[in-house]
Every structure is written in C-alpha cells, then in structure tokens.
Amino acid sequence: MFPNDTYFYRFTIEIALFYLNFSVLVPRLLLNNKIILYVFTSTSSIFLAIIVSNHFTPPPPFNLSPQDPLREFMPRPYENLLNPLRFFLYVMLIAIGTSIRLVIEWYKNEKIKKETEIQRVNTEISFLKAQLNPHFLFNTLNSIYSLANKKSDNTTESIVTLSELMRYMIYETDKDLVPLQNEINYIKNYIALQNLRLKDSRGVRINIYEPIFHKIEPLLLISFIENAFKYGTDYNGRTDIRIKIEVKDNLLLFEVSNYVSTHNRDLKNSGIGLKNVKNRLKLRYPKTHELKIEEKEQQFKVTLKIKLNT
User: Fold this and answer.
1) Which tens digits make up the pLDDT trace of 80-112?
2) Most exposed among 22, 63, 181, 240, judged by the fewest C-beta atoms under 10 Å?
3) How far apart are the two ends of the chain, measured CA to CA in Å?
4) Which of 135, 121, 310 is nearest to 219 (CA)?
C-alpha cells in the first residue's frame, strides 16, 4: 500500500462519516429527540472510523532513523484510538454535518410555517367574506322592501342594480385581490341603489379620484359605506354622507363620514360589518394599514389608509 492510497482511503472514510451523520444519524435520531442515542451512536462512529483508518496505515517500506526528514512524510503506524488530531478532525466533521443539517431543517420548517400561515389567513378571509355577503344582502333587501312598500317606480331599477351587485360578488370576489377600479364601480352601484330609497339624496357627496390602477382585497370598503347609509339619515329624512377615495404614491386614502343618531341605532346588530372588516384588515394588511374611527357631536367618521401593491 502506497502513501497516496492511504490518503485516499482516509478521505473516503471521512466522507462516509460525514454523510452517515448528515443523512442518517441527525434526521433519524437527533431530530426525533433521541439525543442520548445520537450522542452514543455518533461517538461510536468516530472511534470506528479511527479504527478503520488505522487499518489503512502501512508500515514504512524501510527503516528510517528518528532524525531522518523523510519520516515526517510517511504514514505513522503508531496512530491509535487516542490520537488527538484525528479524533478532533472527526468530531469537527460530525459537528459541521450536524450544523448544516439543522440549518437546512430550520429553513424547511420556516417555509412550512409560512405556507401554513398563508393557508390559515386565506381560510379566515374566505370565511369572513362568506359572513359579509349575507349581511350585505340582508341590508340591500331591506332597502328594496322599503321601495316596494312605497310602490316606488324605482323598485324595478333597484332590482336590476342589485343583480349587478350580486354578479360582482359571486363571480369576481373569489380572488385574493381585485382591481380597485372594479371595487369602485361596485361601490358606485351600491350608492346608486341606496339613493333610490332616499327622500333626498343631495346630502350624499362623493369624491373619487380616477383612474386608479391598483389592486385591493375585494369587498373591503363596502361595510363602512353600508354603515354610513344605515345611520346617515336624520328624523326628517335628510341625509348627510361624505365619501372620498384617493390614491397617492400607492397609499389608498378612504374617508367616509355620516350623521349618526341614537334614534335609529341598532345595538343588537350594529357593528357586525365593521368587526368583520377590521379582522380582514388585520389578516390581509397586518402592518400596512391604519384605521381611525371617530364619533363625536352626532358625526361618525372613518379614515382608512392602506399601502397597496401595484
């Protein structure tokens, strides 16, 4: 056996020790919390590797004196289990392999956690959307019912408008994000429907700055507008509602204010839509939105800012 053969065999032993620990011992023992068994098995593997390595240490082909410089380049037959350098080398191989495997597993677990969190958020948002649709339909049917009771000529038009609203809700809001322009068109249809039932719609003032090319979570703004129409009329039928939608530098500014009276406050059912949209904002825009709700002097005002992606 030649010195080059010795180094080749030792290198093979080192590679085998590394992958034994990396591919077998760490995933099957350490990652399964079998720590004691892992320590025992890895330590035994080190000593076994040293024994096998010593087997491939040949004696020198001829006798050399202790002073001969060539002796430094020859394999040493006196290496044994207590050789500190080889033991340290094998321990380092085990430590490096363990560290690399643990880092890889950590990244895998983090990826799984993120995917699970995304699935959880999407599931919760879908559930909240499902809650919102019946709530919206109930309020809208109440509006049409009031028109039908008055035998209004606008009843037919309101039913057509409602069908447009329902078409949007059924066929377009199943996506994570929709064009903001589509959402604004939906809001305009809803406002048009509400104006049909009002005695005096001159108090409904809307400022929407178009065109808007961003995307947004569907049906996110409508609850605030529903709330405004529900409470924005006084005893005499006068309405005071102001709505503003504007986007500047990817920042959506949404404002809606309305007159509010304790006379028509429904304490039992009030706030269902607002609670719903607050939860959706936390899920979809956890750190990129700011919601401010104020109520003073019979005036209810909502200011919402959302950082949108293009």
Assistant:
1) 555 677 788 889 999 999 999 999 999 888 887
2) 63
3) 69
4) 135
